[in-house]
Amino acid sequence: MLDIRKLRLLRELAHRGTIAAVAEALSYTPSAVSQQLSALEREAGRPLLIRTGRRVRLTAAGTVLVEHAEVILADLERASAALAASETGLTGSVRLGAFPTALRTIVLPALIELRRTEPGLEPTITEVDPADVPDLLRGDHLDIALVHEYDNVPSTMGAGIELEPLLDEAVYLASRAAPDVPADAVIGSHATSRWIVGNPGTLCHTMAVRSCLNHGFEPQVAHRIDDFAGVLQLVAAGAGVALVPQLAVTDVPEGVVLTALPIGRRTRIAYRAGSRSQPNLAAVGAELHRAAQHFREE
Q: Do 211 and 219 contact (CB within 8 A), yes or no?
């Protein structure tokens, strides 16, 4: 009989690539992870890993086993959700991850309402970059999270994650002066402007750079700021232009002109596969939808 805890380690290895990364994520020592995976190979009766220096890769048998592990782990989540549904009342913690612009606009109103309607729930919030969400969910560090992707920067969640649409947002060019060109030419008209972008590695940075490259130029980056409130203040001060999503323009400084662009951002709720019907998570998800309704109606 294959051990589910060892299967989980193999699944994490498939996503993270190194034994050290699996150990760090799941609070094991590297030697303990190696020992457990060796034991799983004995249980399976065939090699599951090919070791090349510090890295390992899956054999064909290992890949097949990971595919089945994803199904088994999702079924266990569904079983837990079914058991929880038989209980009366909602109690316990829910670990929620969200990116900064969603925290104050969607998450905070949702949690205020949940505190009123479901006092037994104890949500805890962690600010996370959407790129980190899949590993945090699969590693059982979060229960539910908000993620986003742009038209020109699609996200890749990988196996073991379920996504639920929440909000489609517009993306705006923030500038000091209104453009005198069509919307699809606005970005190109700022080929010689100074740009304010996010830090490298973030989806927002990639979106801004790709948007400029798609119009035939590389942006002249003057500032790298992840906080959109700070970005808008810099625009108001004449320090450059920037691309900002709808959730970031709830408090626009005087002097900033917003121009809607043919670029969209999609915000979604992410769950571990099979956990979506868990009553606590369903309640949080429903309240997030209610909080997002305000922005759908704008």
A: no
Measuring CA to CA, which residue among 151, 70, 135 is closest to residue 97?
135
50-76 burial, b if ≥16 CB within 10 A, otherwise e?
eeeeeebebeeebeebbeebbebbbee
Q: What is the CA radius of gyration of the chain?
A: 22
54 contacts 18 by C-beta, under 8 angstroms: yes
Q: State how far the Cα of 135 lies from the Cα of 34, in Å rounded to an integer.
A: 20
The tokens 């890993």 sit on which residue? 49
Q: What is the pLDDT of residues 212-221, one digit of tens each?
A: 999 999 999 9
Two structure tokens written together for 260:
């809607």
Q: Summarize pLDDT for 85-134 with one digit per residue, the tens.
A: 777 778 899 999 999 999 999 999 999 999 999 999 999 999 998 989 99
Which pair of tokens denotes residue 182?
């069509």
Residue with tokens 């609070």: 27
Q: Annotate 128-172 with DSSP letters as a single string.
A: --GGGHHHHHHTTS-SEEEEEEETTB-----TTEEEEEEEEEEEE
Its pTM stands at: 0.84
**278 contacts: CB under 8 Å, gap ≥ 6:** 77, 80, 81, 84, 85, 143
Do 162 and 276 form a contact (C-beta atoms < 8 A)? yes
Confirm if 255 and 236 have CB atoms less than 8 A apart: yes
C-beta of residue 169 within 8 angstroms of C-beta of residue 265: yes
For residue 121, report the phi and psi dihedrals to the nearest 5 degrees: -80, 145
